[in-house]
Amino acid sequence: MVYKTEGIVLRTRSLGEADTLVTLYTKEHGKVRAAARGARRPRNRLMGPAQVFTHGRYILFKGKQLDTLSQGDIIHSYQAFREDLDWMASAMYAAEVMDVLIEEGEPNPDLFYLLSNTFQLGKQGRFRFALRVFELRLMQFLGYEPQMEACISCHSPLESQIYFTVEGGAVCPACRSQFRGVRPLSPNGWQWMKRLLHWDYARVNILHPSDNALEELSQLMQSYISYRLERPLKSLDFLSTVQKPAPPSRGKEKNSTSPTSPVD
Length: 264
Ligand SMILES: [Zn+2]
Hints:
The chain is of the alpha+beta class. It has helices at 85-101, 109-123, 127-141, 187-198, 211-226, 234-242, and strands spanning 2-15, 19-26, 30-36, 55-61, 67-76, 162-165, 169-171, 182-185.
């Protein structure tokens, strides 16, 4: 059976002498794995479409064990993501989280649009923002949305002292000792988390959180996602190693941890 689909290449690995095994996240069929025969031969027509991060229209043959990629037309090559370490690490992180959290099959066009928009924003130089939206919305789409409106334990309203637990969202000072992976959450970070979760997704690109807010959300959501995985993400180490320091912040406050400092 032949099928056509629009997809983004999440990862690739060598298969045999000249083939590439690609994992695609597709709009119509969810996560799909396929062999691109001959894609590692020079001038092969599948070479471009089978490169990691490529967004294209694909024609595949359904196989018993493995599908075969027969044709691909590139919509966005995202060549720049493969040439800049910072961008590569960011794109790899989004792709790896999708790959690890999502089973094959189970189509979900919202998830495809989320990844596609994350890459588009990344290409505009906004990966730091795009990944925060990606983390929160992915958790929401997959049913792991952090609960932020009130304390997840006693349901009392949250005021100035707010904490965040990897076990489910915001907690009040009185309840925080019941949970694991608890960190303080600033009122500003709290507002941004709620906004990024509930803002009309089609218009999310107009938002511009401060660098401090993005850094805070990054730390919290990376632990939140890691808590839901069976193994650590390879791309997180890479991301923290290569990420350029955030531009100097305009405010006078300083973050106690930076993405490049080792975290125990
Ligand atoms: Zn409470």
